[in-house]
Automatic annotation (TrEMBL):
Transmembrane segments: none annotated. This is Nuclear condensing complex subunit, C-term domain family protein. Keywords: Cell cycle, Cell division, Chromosome, Coiled coil, DNA condensation, Mitosis. Pfam families: Cnd3, TPR_TTI1_C. It comes from Candida albicans. It comes from the Eukaryota.
Length: 1212
């Protein structure tokens, strides 16, 4: 039969048979896949075919042909243009049908309205309304040919939405994403229910492209509410609201691994007051495109008036955007500020500043960015005499930022035109300071009221602070008791097992009947192995010891349980007290605000505005030209007087001290003046009995530091009366001590020289700072003391050593606020002095504490502080420094067991090496914890932590080759722990490529091609990931590792012995799969096996090339490669050894390990008490699978080769 020609509108009118309709549709679909240009014409043709099918009463046949033709493109992969064009054509066709139907409906309604006007005016109005309502209901329930076709099409597509072929699933959901726009045309509730349920399931599809289309499709449901019928009469219908749909999209925004899926949800989520914070939160997304969209599209759509956006949201948007590491995001945030926000305030700069809130941390950066991108605005700013006399917060802020920008960019003409001389500026500052004092003096009653209120709040804060610290200590004690209880209970169980075994064995020996093997069970296997050579006398002695041990610890569980109950009682009491005190604080604040709404609160707000103006003037003065000596002296006098006599707030003290530093001749002069001011403040409580505070501080120094010897104690042994008079009365009230501490803190932040250059500061440390640290019950005082302690540590190593112990004790026994200050201080101390500042015990304690905080997801701020601090220490190589002996843990210890040639005290050397190795192992665990936290799903709720790790880990990895080697060393452990020790929904297809990318030497900065090709990080990472193949049970992890082997950058330019080590590891893996052919976890599919074989063959080829290259180099040079010589060296000592000696050393080590294992087992009961102090990151070897002797020998040989080759690569 000949194929009919392409249909025309004229020909369609003559259609009478089904074949004519079918062939017309085929022609339309054939042309539709060729391009989008002709779709409009094709839609018109197909609509006429549809109408003809309706005339012939063949709508079902039309729908069947349509879906049959559509099914031709469903198997097409994503990105194939023909498939995309057909899907868009389907949408255009359905959209055209619905539009035509709506227009027809609208025209009928208009005709009906005209007819209604012609009706009798006497008709009852209520009757007419009832008729209209009945007509509307009838029309709404009526099934039309168009709705029948759409329902048929959707039902057909739903049948393939869970197809095994990912391409079919993708095309189905892609088509539905277009068609759900016409939800109103679906009248069957079952179809709507199935569509919603199946699309919701696709949000969890493993293919991100399908999840994207599912998000787009579900976003159309946000405008509707419908019910899902219960399965039986027992279940009520479930109402699906728009909030439920939004929650699904929000879940995708926050938790989906794919940035494209998050982007689709971001763009399609309905913007309401509830969803706006979720949308703006994506300004911290890990993907730069998503972050940029928040500023370029989302924020612009949200804002017609800046008042529509909460102040906190405006501040966060600017803070995140202007500080973003990606320049495109930063540019988008700047454009949002300088164009959209500026236009929303009618280009009024002062109004824009008012909307930014000048007291926010980001306002300054925002205005400076505004000036930079709109320099033409600078010419419009005019600061005259009237401007100075009528300063407001906005004007003062604009004036200061304007001066700062001009000063930084050397716009001297603008500065000269708008700012007076230094003397005039000093007089202006003095006038505003005088106004402040006058305002305070004229409102003494209000000031007293405010101070009384603050005293009450401080008292309540102290109580809350004390209770929180008690709760923290109770939790710590309870954890320790629980660990002890668990250990003791395990010990008792083991003792009873051993006791029973000993009794039965003694009975056997007495009766001379039976063997020890008859008594062995799964529980007593280890003990039985240890006593197999014991005589009856040995067993009886052991039994006596066990009974004594059991008598000693048997009562301990009861005691510990009683203590835990006591702690629980205390905990409950503290919680109740904390809740009561917190409620009392809230009530106190509310009552004060209500009672003083019209007097004290407005006065305090006005005073704060005045102080802000003074702050801006001080910031201008700080950077002013001090060429006029008379003006400089005038300003110096003003600053010293206001610091000494005025009770300035913390913000003004900080700026005033920086001005004082700028006015000083040098740092020593500044410190001298600052200490004098602090001393005067300290002694200001009693002007009548004035004495030198510095002298008193000096007297306290030795006592509080605890460093004085007998001679110093004798020299300071004054009479009791004199000592009491000079020490006890000299400590001022707490408010004055707090002022002194605040000023000391800001002084320490400014100076750079060591404490030896500023001896006067030592007296303040020994007096006020130590006094504050001892007052743990007073929150402000204690926290200020800890802050000053941390700052003092940065300029004096002796104080730093004391501070590490003090801070550790404070952090372990107090709440989160203390821990935040302590963690920041410790990180700074380690950054200055390195790990050597810590004593041996502290290193381990800090490692445990860091590890614990990293995994404390209930303390996100503290988690961020520790993560960022550790990343800086790792980046600076202060922690986890690359070391050739311990680069891969114990992998390079094999040669270190020889003599200590050249060492006078080998025992001491070995102890030092053991300690160093232990420290490094702890640091490695910390580094591994950082990487694990990056992949931990719980991190998604902490956007700040995600940003820190997303930035720091790549910077660390791409900065140095040694850093990549460190990452390679933990890659195997990371995969092992993620997919063995915890239940996780993470996909290895995401994690493994990420680890490989971090270790890729091609990503390193400032490396030549030759250095990149000789880098060994990928080689060692490959070896350790191959070990994971053996240790992890999950088949998908094994497959993913093998399928990603081709991503490793391993070249023939590496040394042959390095490639040989990799070949041995590959051979061991091949043997592992061969020996486990019956294990389903070790069965590989054909593509994976093929990839593995290709990789092995490529490595063998590279090995041959490397060997030939080395042979040619040896011939040319006439000497052997240094690597062959290094093979005969002992890695630990550098001395040559024979192969026999190496084997003897290995045998001796194995014998020692056996003896040690036996001894450890024998003393296991005694050692069990130490379980609670083991490092929390368990050794990977505990979870490794057992292998037979042949596999073990292969792995041992492979390990030795790796050890030797790692050493060689490091020496290169």
């Amino acid at each position: 039969m000949d194929i009919p020609p392409k249909p025309t509108l004229k020909a369609i009118k003559k259609f009478r048979t089904l074949d004519e309709i079918k062939y017309a549709m085929k022609h339309v679909f054939q042309d539709a896949q060729l391009g989008l240009a002709g779709h409009r014409k094709l839609v018109v043709i197909l609509k006429n075919v549809f109408k003809k099918a309706i005339e012939l009463n063949q709508i079902n046949f039309f729908a069947m042909c349509f879906t049959k033709l559509l099914s031709k493109v469903l198997p097409l992969k994503r990105g194939v243009l023909a498939g995309d064009r057909i899907v868009k054509f389907c949408y255009s066709f359905v959209n055209g049908l619905v539009k035509d139907a709506n227009e027809e409906k609208r025209s009928k309604e208009e005709e009906k309205e005209e007819k209604d006007k012609d009706k009798d005016k006497d008709t009852n109005e209520s009757d007419k309304n009832e008729e209209d309502q009945e007509d509307q209901e009838g029309e709404g329930d009526q099934e039309t040919p168009i709705s029948e076709f759409i329902s048929y099409l959707i039902k057909y597509l739903l049948s393939g939405i869970e197809a095994k072929d990912k391409s079919v699933r993708y095309r189905v959901v892609q088509t539905l994403a277009y068609l759900v726009e016409f939800l109103t045309e679906i009248h069957e509730n079952n179809t709507l229910e199935a569509l919603y349920t199946l699309l919701s399931n696709r949000l969890q599809d493993k293919e991100s492209s399908i999840r994207i289309q599912a998000v787009v499709a579900l976003s159309h449901f946000q405008l509707f509410e419908f019910s899902i019928e219960g399965d039986t009469g027992e279940f009520e219908d479930e109402l699906i609201s728009s909030n439920q749909i939004q929650n699904k999209l929000i879940n995708s925004i926050q938790n989906d691994d794919s940035p494209e899926v998050r982007r689709a949800a971001l763009m399609n989520l309905v913007k309401t007051q509830d969803t706006i914070p979720i949308l703006l939160e994506r300004a911290r997304d890990s993907n730069s495109i998503n972050r940029r969209l928040v500023y370029s599209k989302i924020a612009r759509e949200l804002i017609t008036d800046l008042d529509d956006l909460e102040f906190e949201d405006r501040e966060f948007l600017l803070k995140w955007g202007l500080n973003d590491r990606d320049e495109t995001v930063k540019a988008a945030a700047t454009k949002m500020l300088t164009i959209y926000w500026y236009q929303s305030v009618n280009e009024d700069l002062l109004e824009l500043i008012d909307q930014l809130n000048v007291k926010s941390a980001i306002a300054e950066q925002a205005i400076l960015a505004f000036f930079k991108n709109k320099p033409e605005v600078l010419e419009t700013i005019k600061i005259d005499e009237s401007y100075w006399k009528n300063l407001t917060t906005e004007k003062a802020f604009l004036m200061r930022t304007f001066y700062q920008y001009c000063n930084e960019n050397q716009l001297h003409a603008l500065m000269d035109a708008n700012f007076p001389e230094l003397l005039d500026l000093s007089i202006t500052l003095e006038k505003y300071l005088s106004v402040r004092l006058k305002t305070i003096n004229e409102n003494e009653n209000l000031i007293k009221t405010w101070e009384t209120y603050n005293a009450k709040i401080d008292e309540l804060d102290d109580q809350i602070f004390s209770l929180e610290n008690q709760i923290s200590r109770i939790n710590t004690d309870a954890d320790n008791f629980r660990k002890s209880l668990s250990n003791i209970e395990e010990d008792i169980i083991e003792i009873n097992i051993a006791k029973d075994l000993f009794k039965k064995r003694i009975k056997q020996l007495k009766n001379n009947s039976g063997n020890l093997e008859d008594l062995i069970t799964e529980e007593n296997q280890e003990i039985a192995d240890q006593i197999k050579d014991f005589s009856m006398e040995d067993l009886q002695q052991q039994l006596e010891d066990i009974n004594k041990n059991l008598d000693e610890i048997e009562h301990q569980p009861e005691d510990i349980t009683a203590k835990l109950e006591e702690l629980q009682t205390k905990y409950d009491s503290c919680i109740r007290a904390l809740e009561t005190t917190s409620e009392l604080k809230i009530q106190t604040v509310q009552i004060f605000e209500q009672e003083h709404e019209n007097d004290c609160i407005p006065f305090v707000d006005a005073l704060k505005e005045l102080e802000f103006i003074i702050n801006q003037l001080l910031l201008i003065v700080k950077d002013f030209d001090y060429g006029d000596e008379m003006a400089r002296r005038k300003l110096l006098h003003i600053i010293r007087m206001t610091l000494t006599e005025d009770k300035l707030p913390d913000g003004l003290i900080s700026v005033a001290l920086r001005v004082l530093r700028a006015l000083s001749i040098n740092e020593k002069d500044f410190v001298s003046m600052a200490v004098e001011i602090i001393t005067d403040i300290r002694d200001s409580r009693d002007d009548e009995e004035f004495h030198s505070a510095a002298a008193t501080f000096d007297d306290d120094d030795d006592d509080i530091l605890g460093n004085g010897d007998d001679e110093s104690q004798q020299s300071s042994s004054l009479s009791a009366v004199t000592k009491k008079r000079r020490i006890e009365p000299d400590m001022p009230p707490d408010d004055i001590v707090l002022r002194c501490l605040t000023m000391t803190q800001y002084v320490l932040e400014v100076i750079t020289h060591s404490l030896d250059d500023h001896l006067s500061l030592s007296s303040i440390y020994s007096g006020i700072v130590n006094y504050a640290i001892q007052n743990e019950s007073k929150k402000k005082l204690y926290l200020a003391g800890l802050t000053c302690l941390g700052l003092y540590s940065l300029i004096d190593s002796k104080i730093a050593r004391i501070a590490t112990t003090t801070l550790l004790s404070a952090m372990r026994s107090n709440g989160e606020e203390v821990k935040e200050i302590g963690m920041k201080a410790i990180v700074d101390i380690l950054a200055i002095y390195g790990m050597s500042i810590l004593d041996k015990s502290s290193k381990y304690k800090y490692s445990r504490m860091f590890f614990k905080v990293l995994n404390s997801f209930d303390a996100p701020k503290l988690q961020c502080i520790v993560a960022e601090g550790l990343c800086k220490l790792f980046l600076a190589d202060i922690l986890y420094k690359t070391d050739k002996r311990s680069l891969f843990g114990n992998a390079i210890q094999g040669g270190g067991g020889g003599g200590g040639g050249g060492n006078d005290d080998p025992t001491t050397t070995n102890d030092d090496e053991t300690e160093e190795e232990t420290d490094r192992e702890h640091e490695k665990h910390l580094f591994e914890a950082i990487v694990l936290i990056y992949f931990n799903p719980n991190t998604k709720s902490n956007q700040e932590l995600q940003q820190i790790l997303s930035f720091c880990i790549p910077v660390y990895a791409f900065s140095r080759i040694n850093h990549q080697i460190n990452l390679a060393a933990v890659s195997g452990d990371v995969i092992y722990r993620l997919f063995t020790e915890t239940e996780t929904e993470l996909s290895p297809s995401v994690i493994i490529p990420q680890l490989i990318s971090w270790c890729d030497p091609r990503n390193l900065v400032k490396l030549s091609n030759e250095e990149i090709n000789q880098a060994t990080s990928h080689l060692w990472q490959c070896v350790y990931l191959l070990q994971v193949v053996e240790q992890v049970d999950a088949r998908n992890v094994k497959r993913c590792i093998i399928n990603n082997l081709n991503k490793f950058h391993i070249t023939e330019e590496l040394e042959s012995n390095q490639l040989q080590a990799l070949i041995k590891a590959l051979d061991a893996t091949v043997e592992l799969f061969t020996n486990n052919e019956d294990n389903p976890n070790f069965i590989l599919d054909k593509p994976t096996k093929k990839n593995f074989d290709i990789f092995i063959e490529s490595i063998k080829n590279k090995l041959e090339i490397a060997q030939k290259r080395e042979e040619n180099e040896s011939i040319k040079s006439g000497t052997n490669s240094i690597l062959h010589e290094l093979d005969d060296l002992d890695i630990g000592t550098g001395e040559k050894t024979s192969e026999n000696e190496d084997e003897e050393d290995d045998n001796e080590e194995e014998e020692q390990e056996k003896k040690k294992s036996f001894t450890d087992g024998k003393n296991k009961l005694e050692l069990k008490a130490d379980k609670s102090i083991t490092f929390k990151a368990e050794d990977k070897r505990e979870g490794s699978v057992e292998i037979d002797h042949g596999q073990e020998q292969v792995l041992v040989e492979s390990k030795k080769a790796i050890d030797s080759n790692v050493e060689d690569s490091l020496k290169i």
